[in-house]
Design brief:
Largest sheet: 5 strands, mixed
Mean pLDDT: 91
Low-confidence stretches: none
Shape: globular
Order of helices and strands: HHHEHEEEEH
Distance between the termini: 41 Å
Helix content: 25-40%
Structural class: alpha+beta
Number of strands: 5
Strand order of the largest sheet: 1-5-4-3-2
Length: about 150
């Protein structure tokens, strides 16, 4: 198979299109965009790999968070990697990380980094503001030292 070199914009667009899987539940996009040997470094050790595993994660997240959305605030790419800064929002309707459904709406920042090879995502890393998520769910009520941190706005 002959592969074409991807531009930085091509790589960025592939990363942006990953939002179709989470925002729209587009499982066909998972099979189109995610490589068979895909590794999600955010997933627990030993978790399944590949497009179906990524689609399953998105399906689960959409079941836990009613109206789940990943709103892209910033995106850029260089070489084979793209970075997205997103605002995640949704209303918790099922257990999440041991926290029973609260019915509360959340809005928190994430940073996602994708590595692309042969036109497909082969690796994913994420940094999520889980402490802010826990605060918004009422699971963390201890004061934090330093400046107050407002909820992110798009």
């Amino acid at each position: 198979m002959t592969t074409q070199a991807l531009t930085d914009e091509d790589v960025r667009q592939i990363a942006v299109d990953m939002g179709l899987i989470f925002n729209d539940g587009d499982e066909e996009a998972a099979h189109r965009l995610v490589a068979e040997d895909f590794i999600d470094w955010e997933a627990p050790e030993g978790a399944p790999r590949g497009p179906e595993a990524y689609a399953n994660t998105a399906r689960w997240m959409r079941s836990v968070w009613e109206g789940a959305r990943w709103e892209i605030v910033d995106s850029f790419a260089k070489g084979d990697k793209a970075a997205l800064r997103v605002i995640f929002s949704g209303r918790q309707v099922k257990d999440f990380m041991g926290i029973p459904a609260t019915g509360k709406k959340v809005r928190v920042q994430h940073i996602h980094i994708y590595r692309i090879a042969d036109g497909k995502v082969v690796e994913h890393w994420a940094v999520r503001d889980d402490l802010e998520l826990m605060r918004q769910l009422g699971a963390w009520d201890k004061p934090l030292e330093g400046a107050p941190k407002p909820a992110p706005r798009a």
